[in-house]
């Protein structure tokens, strides 16, 4: 039954087993699987749940408010069957944490779904978030190594400030500190340095970044890739995608440094041979 499971999905089931054993149950319940998905930490399901501010502690506290029935073997079996069906519909040749979560959400009468609804969450919105993250993951496969490095650097920046999500300012710092990509070259040509950008960012009141910020920049970058007819997504496309977000902190910082967003964009296009 678990042959097609990813390592993360197998870890979720193992964590769920530990949860059931702590409750002296012979079988896994749907809520054990939900706790396993959350505590796994790095899979698509865990990221999705984090995006809805769901933590292991918050979920467990909500579960404790409910009278729990003794789990049956059929509970786990049904979720796994649902997960395998989701994988088939999405044309995936594996079962990951995302499929387990989607399979769980199908069980409308289970305690897990009741817990999520009691936390004022929409099951449909959670499902859509999973599908959106899967779309983004497919996009990341087209990232060049330099673009991937930018995102890793941006994530590191967000962690320094204790943020859960990447902000547009983090991406800007990632683009300049990556050092060798076209975006870094262009920003250096504008007399921008990592230190200069960071000092300017510190002058602004920073709001906590939302998951939607990085998603929007990546979507913009993909649109630039399609428009310019490239088969990869490079640092230049990330920069162009960032410049589209006119009201974001990164653009505000660039403008406060006396730079024209249109001129930076034209500089990128000139390098790519698409200039006017």
UniProtKB/TrEMBL annotation:
The keyword Repeat applies. It comes from the Bacteria. The keyword Repeat applies. Residues 2-139, 140-274 form the Clp R domain. It holds the Pfam family Clp_N. Residues 73-136 form a coiled coil. Keywords: Coiled coil, Repeat. This is Negative regulator of genetic competence ClpC/MecB. It comes from Gimesia aquarii.
């Amino acid at each position: 039954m678990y042959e097609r499971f990813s390592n993360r999905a197998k870890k979720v089931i193992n964590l769920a087993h530990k949860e059931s054993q702590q409750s002296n149950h012979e079988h896994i319940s749907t809520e054990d699987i939900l706790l396993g998905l959350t505590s796994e930490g790095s899979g698509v399901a865990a990221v999705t749940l984090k995006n809805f501010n769901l933590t292991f502690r918050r979920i467990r506290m909500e579960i404790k408010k409910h009278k729990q029935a003794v789990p049956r073997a059929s509970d786990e079996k049904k979720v796994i069957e649902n997960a395998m069906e989701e994988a088939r519909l999405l044309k995936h040749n594996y079962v990951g944490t995302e499929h387990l979560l989607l399979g769980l959400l199908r069980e409308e009468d289970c305690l897990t779904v009741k817990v999520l609804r009691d936390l004022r969450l929409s099951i449909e919105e959670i499902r859509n978030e999973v599908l959106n993250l899967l779309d983004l993951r497919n996009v990341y496969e087209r990232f060049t190594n330099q673009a991937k490095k930018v995102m890793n650097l941006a994530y590191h920046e967000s962690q320094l400030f204790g943020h859960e999500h990447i902000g547009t300012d983090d991406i800007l710092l990632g683009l300049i500190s990556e050092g060798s990509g076209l975006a870094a070259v262009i920003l250096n040509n504008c007399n921008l340095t990592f230190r200069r950008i960071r000092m300017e960012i510190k002058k602004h009141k920073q709001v906590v970044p939302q998951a939607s910020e990085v998603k929007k920049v990546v979507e913009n970058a993909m649109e630039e890739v399609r428009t310019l007819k490239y088969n990869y997504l490079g640092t230049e496309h990330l920069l162009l995608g960032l410049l589209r977000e006119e009201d974001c902190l990164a653009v505000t910082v660039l403008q406060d440094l006396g730079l024209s967003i249109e001129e930076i964009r034209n500089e990128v296009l000139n390098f790519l041979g698409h200039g006017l």
